[in-house]
Amino acid sequence: PQVELLVLSACRTAVGDKNSELGFAGLAIATGVKSALASLWLVNDEGTLGLMTEFYSNLGNVSIKSEALREAQIAMLKGKVVIENGILKVSGGRGEMPLPPELAQMNQKNFSHPYYWAGFTMVGSPW
Fold first, then answer.
1. d(Cα 57, Cα 52) in Å, to the nearest integer?
2. What contacts 24+ positions apart, CB below 8 Å, involve 105-109?
3. Which end of the chain has fewer surrounding CB within 10 Å, N or C?
4. What is the per-residue pLDDT across 100-111, written as a single tens digit (0 to 9) for each?
C-alpha cells in the first residue's frame, strides 16, 4: 500500500543536491510516498515539538494535509503554541503536554518567530 504521509521532522530534509532536488522528501516522493512533510533548514527541537503537536492535532480536523500544516504554522505565528513552566500548550485550549525532564526546565518560550515554523513544507500531494 502507498504511504499517505511521511513526516521528516529532522533538519534539512527538504534540501536537495544534484542527486535529489528535494532531499529526503524528494526521494520519498520518487519512491511512491504520496506526501512528505520536511524541513528546509536546521530546526529547533522545542519549536518542532510544538509545530508537530499542533500539526497532528489539526490532521483530524481538515481533509487536506497542507492545510493542517498551514493552520499549525499560523497558530505558531500568533503565539498560540508556547512552553510555560515546563508544559507545552497548544492552540485553542486543546491540551497541555508535560515536557520530558531535559526540556521541563524551560520556563517560558514563544515560537512566533518564523525560524521555528516557516522552514517546514509539504512535498508531493497536499491531499
1. 8
2. 106/46, 108/82, 108/83, 108/84, 109/46, 109/82, 109/83
3. N
4. 888 777 777 899
